[in-house]
Every structure is written in structure tokens, then in C-alpha cells.
Fold each of these.
Amino acid sequence: MRSRFYWLGLAIALVGLSMLWLVLFAAQLGQPVPETRWMAEAYAIKRARAQSLPSPKVVVLAGSSALFSIDSGLLEKTWGRPVVNLGVNAALGLDYLLRTAEPYLKPQDLVLMPLEYPLYQADRRLNAQLIDHVIGQDPDYWRSLGWGERLRFITQLPAARLLAGLGRQEDPRPPGAGLYGGNALDERGDHRRNDWALLDPAERAAVASAHAEARAKCHTYGRQDRPNAPGWRRLRDFHRRLQARGITLWLVPPALMDQPSYHQDPIERRYYQTLPERVRALGIPFFGTPESFRYPPEDFFDTPYHLTAQARTRHTLALLAQLPRPPFAESQ
């Protein structure tokens, strides 16, 4: 009898705790934390422009590789059509990037994707930045997911984030402030403070520390590669949906800080050599080679994907030299 009451009590306690967690989770929706405010500011600027532009337009889509390393003004001047840079943060994952960009794409648009290498894997694990942003800044995205995906957010919400959200933290900085804030973007969505001359002493010290860490870290994308990773299927399906709507998708390599292992390690070398054909095998056009868009450390701002303002212009010119005329140019 005691055993029966014990298990009944345990079951009731577990159900009660689960219900309490659901209530507390629901209280988090739309309650941001300061760490992700810059992403919300960036998306507000970029999506408003994407919504306002006439088609055909050019949409640059990736993580912060696009944010820092593409000169959208130069693309606009060269191709004669408006450009919006939707790049924000690769940590939000491929699913988020593709799903949230699709509503802003219209027939005749060109989507240019300098996709970061980890995004080809489309790892389904949730990370703190994705959880913080979606729960606090974009709860409609969470509501748009299937029940299984929503449950993953519920069960993987860290207790620390729960307490932070309940505490209603206020960011002491004014809106738009900070190295990554909304004020750092131009009207097309490019980051415009990736220039050491524009930084205050505290920002310069932070960027110098991040740059030193980037130089010391060697990424092993080749060894992390999984040929059957879900990202390949998602890219193929995304391309097919765009094709059906008369939208063009081009993939290109991202700018990347060069490392000796990319040349010396046979696994790493083969990964970059074979990537373009693997993408083309999905039916997706891929222009350029990864080897052509690796640059020395001095060209980078604070991460292995973030070019300085000067290097960004050179990179965009080199990228344009690898690209054909856009489809909308043929009809002009």
C-alpha cells in the first residue's frame, strides 16, 4: 500500500512540476533578455527593407558572414536592382534562416547565399542564442513550428534563462547602441562599424581579444562533415520551393580566415575541393571555390567570418567576378 501511494505521489508531483514549467515557459514568450536585443534590432531593419523593396530584388541570406562580408551597395550599383542583406547570426541555424526569409521572397528575386560551412550540417540541437532570440524576440516563429519542435524549446529552455526572463531584465543601453546594435547597420542591412577607426577604446579591446582568439582557433569543418546531414536535404527542398515560385537561388563560398590545416590536412582539403560539386548535385547553382575566398588574418575584424570594411569591398568585387549576369538583367 505504501509503495502504491509513493508512486502515485511521485506521479502527481511530476505532473505538477511539468505543468508549472509549462506555465513559466509561457510567461517567457515575448520577454527578451538584453543579450539578444541586437538581433531583434537587426531583423527589424532588414525585414522592413525586404518588405518594402520592389521585385526583382537581391536578397543576401546567411549568418553574420553576410552581415559583415558583403557590400550590398556594391551589388546594387553593379546589378542595378535593390539589395537587402538579411544576414544576422549563423547560430540561429539553417532552419530559422530559411523559414523566416521565405515570406519576403517574391517571383524574379535572386537569393545570394554565402552560407557558413557549419550551416550545411543544419544541426538540430538548440543553442542558447537561438532559444533566447526565439522565445524572447520572435515567439511567432515558435508558434509556427510543429508540436514536436515546440516541445524541444520547452524542454531545453535552461533554468537560468527562465529566471532571467521572469526577472524582466532591462538593457541599460539606449536602443541601437553597441558594436552589433541597430545603429551599426546601414539602410541595406550591412554592418558598417567593422572598421577599427570607428571603435571606442572598450570596443577596440573587445575586438582585439576576439580577433586573437579567432586567429588561434582552427576549425575542422571537413572532419565535422556528415554527408547525410539534414542541411543538405533542407537546402534542396528550399531550392525547389523557390524554383516553383520563380525565385533564383545562388550559393557561393563565405569569406573565411585562412589556416594552414585547410591546405595541409587531406580531409579538410578534400572537403573544400568537393563542396561546390556536392551543392550542384542538389540542383543548386554554386559559383566560385572556397579556396578563392580565404583571406589572411589581417583582413578580418573579430571572427573568422567577419571581414573588415576594406576587405569586404575587395571580397565583394572578387565575388562579382565569379558570378554570371543575374536572371533579371537578361530581361532588361
Note: The longest helix spans residues 2-28.
Amino acid sequence: MTDLNLICEKAAAAKRELNALSEEKINAALKECVVSIKAHAEEIKAANLKDVKHAREKGLSDAFIDRLTVTDAVIDSITCGIEEIIAAKSPVGKVLYTYFNEKQGIRVVKKAVPFGVVGIIFESRPNVTADAFALCFKTANAVILKGGSDAIATNAAIVNAIKAALTKVGVTADAVNLIEDSSRETATAFMKQDKYVDLLIPRGSAQLIKATVANATVPVIETGAGNCHVYVDEFADEDKAVKVIFNAKTQRYSVCNACESLVIHEKILGSVLPKIYGKLQEKQVKMYCDEKSFAVLKGKENVFPATEEDFYTEYGAAEISVKTVSDLDCAIEHINKCSTHHSESIITENKARAAKFMNDVDSAVVYDNSSTRFSDGFLFGLGAEIGISTQKLHARGPMGLEALCTTKYFVEGDGAVRK
């Protein structure tokens, strides 16, 4: 049985040691982690085969297994992500504000500092194990990882490789901690460890995020749930719309930045929707259509009447909803109502309408004539990301190193007393 308190106590003790490490020492340890993960690649893949086998026996979806599977390419991606983090400049210690109060005789400096202990609750993506550790370690945070039961063998193998590297370079192995108990009771107890954990980040399904927010006493950053929209405006280039939507929907179904909802202006519906349909049928995408769009495609394969629930659904599969709107304001209203405030795109040749859409849509990332699949910390120059925040406090959008820092005021005086 997992001793949750002991794990949290060890992480809290480790944060003091990590806070004293130089960036050079941190980078040296991360380089050793890259070496160790590569050296343990076969062990990691062997452990992953067990997890994948169990997932298939449980009848889990192909999309789920896609997220779970570790290949040589995934190992390369994991180590490349760590190398990107090594190359990045740590924000720890960055001066954000200075002020000299001459009358009071004090100098005020605001700096970026580590949170201390960061908890990550995630589901079936083993790459999160290494990404989360490396981002937290680069910012001198200890991390406690709570992965899903379906990836437990893989996660343990990755953590063991990281711990071996840290030990080799003389850094506390408690910089990374894995909760191996997969019970819901342990997960809920972890959410309440505010005595030791300074920040909690859930990565996974909408259900996981909702449960974390409902149960946690530790401060939470909401991430991940992605009912992302592409709006095809009446002034859209139709070929451009087809190209962007096909990429946003079908490049990879299981990711949170895939397009799940299509919104089309009624003036262009009759001409553009059949083109979109034809392209999406190369991948047999099911389309759940409102009354007007259903009338355009009625009788075609993989076309179904939409329910109200469809417009709120993150499918994570070869499925998409279709909504017809009468004007730009209706499109914005529909998206703000139904989205998870993750990533939304407009396809239009009218720059004024694009600007209005991007200003008025209340989501973390907004696009002009681009696929929502670009919502990724790596592609935004942040290196590996800790998640994509869909809330507004502290961090929003793809979260890299800076999102893992809080702030602290350093005040200097010479026997100063308030006058």
C-alpha cells in the first residue's frame, strides 16, 4: 500500500535541496537523464508492452492505446523534449519588478521563484512522466506524479531511469516521485495534500479535471479538455478551409487540440460543406449535423442528426459536430457557450472579421486561418509543456517553464522602519 504522506514529505524535503542547485547542475542532471532513458529504452518498452496488453484485454479504444503506446519514436520524442528544456533559460531568479522607495529607505525586487512541490495527475500518456519531471526539475520544483493505472508499469520504468540518473550525479532522487497506488481513494487523498503540495495540475479527460477541481484543497490549474472549434466564415477561402479542417480533425484524434466542432456560416454552407465532407470521408469521419447542415448532406454515409450534447462533446475519435450560424456574432456566441475555452480558429479572408473573432472568443488560444493542432508548448517555443491551461489564473494556454514559477518580493533596507 502506498504511504502517501511519506511520498509527500520526501518531496517537500527535496524542494530545499533543489532550490539550492545551480542551473548548470540542473542541466547536467537532465543530460544524465537523457542518457539514462536511452540506456533503459528496452526496459521501458517492455514495461509498456505489459500495459498495452492489459489495455487491449480490457477492450480500450484504439485512440486510448495510441496515447499509451511507447515506441522508439516516442523515446526519441521524450529525450528531445528534455534536451529542449536543457537548452532553455530557466526563469528562476528572473527579476520581474524593481522599486526604490527613497522616503522609506527600502528597495523592492520581485523575482520568479519555484512553487516548491508540484503534483501532476494524468492518465494514459507515459511521455508526461518525463516531460513533467524535466519541466519541474528545470525550475527547481520537486514533482509528485500520479499516473493512470493503465500506464503504471511504463511510468515506473521511466521514473526508475530518471532516479538512477539523479543518483549518479549526486542529486536527491526524491526530486521525482511516483504514486503507484491507482485507487480513486488515493487520488482523492493526494488532491488534499495541501500541507506538502503547492500546486496541482491535472492532465487528461474532462472527468479527471472536473473531479480534481471538485475535490482538491491544493491550488489547481485546469488543463486539457479540448472541445476545439473551427469556424468557416462567409468570406472563407473554401480550399483553405478544407485543408485546415482536415488537418485539425484527422492528424491525430486523441489529442486535446484536435478540432471537435465545426461551425459554418449559412451563406457558404451549401458550397463548402460537401467539400469538407468529401475530404473527411477519406478517414471515415462521422459527422453530427444540425438541421441545416444535415439537409445538405442527407443520405450520405457517416452523417447523423446532432443532439444538443454533440456540440459540447470532445470526441477524441473520428467524429465531429457541425453547427450552422447566420452571422459572425452567432458563431462567437455558440463557441463561447459550448467550448472548453482551449483553442478555436476562424477561416476567413476578411482580416477585420478575423480580428473580431480572435478578440471576442474567450479561449486560451485563438487562430486566424490555422489548424488548432498548433496549440503545443513545443511549437510555441516553450519546449516540452506541462499542459495547456484553460483557466485564467496564473497561467493560460500552453504552459512551459515560466508557468511553474510563482513570485516572491525581496525587500532590502538598512535598519529601515516605516515612517
Note: The mean pLDDT is 92.
